[in-house]
């Protein structure tokens, strides 16, 4: 049995541009396909404090920081939905990050 919990974050600039990415040829799923601005899997070591349940917002912010080098004060983060991809045994959360900067400043 396999499963994972992923976070997909759509990043939108202050002037309403959506930032998208192309998946690397080195990933297992969706090679070379257009994807969300940032995505991150939950990590027991990084996202759980003292064995507590993981903080989804903290994990999403970690993904935005690692993949886009954006800091929490640069955007507002909202949880939009939870999802299940039965074909891939994946669970996840969808977030929206509204930047406090334009595409030019990004």
Task: Give a short synopsis of this structure.
This protein has 106 residues and is α+β, with helices and mostly antiparallel strands.
Structural class: alpha+beta
How many DSSP helices? Answer: 2
Radius of gyration: 14 Å
Provide the succession of SSEs: EEEEEHHEE
Low-pLDDT ranges: none
Taken as a percent bin, the fraction of beta residues is 35-45%
Tell me the total number of β-strands. 7
Could you give the distance between the termini?
Answer: 41 Å
- pLDDT averaged over residues: 90
Overview of this structure, please?
By secondary structure, the protein is an alpha+beta fold. The chain has 2 helices and 7 strands; from the N terminus they run βββββααββ. It has helices at residues 44-47, 56-68, and strands at residues 4-12, 18-19, 21-22, 34-35, 38-41, 75-85, 90-99. The strands form 2 sheets. Strands 1, 2, 5, 6 and 7 form a 5-stranded mixed β-sheet that branches. The longest helix has 13 residues, at 56-68. The radius of gyration is 14 Å and the shape is globular.
Characteristic key phrases:
alpha+beta, 5-stranded mixed sheet, two-stranded antiparallel ribbon, 106 residues, globular
What is the strand and helix layout of this fold?
Blueprint: E1 4-12, E2 18-19, E3 21-22, E4 34-35, E5 38-41, H1 44-47, H2 56-68, E6 75-85, E7 90-99
Parallel strand pairs: 1-7
Antiparallel strand pairs: 1-2, 1-5, 3-4, 6-7
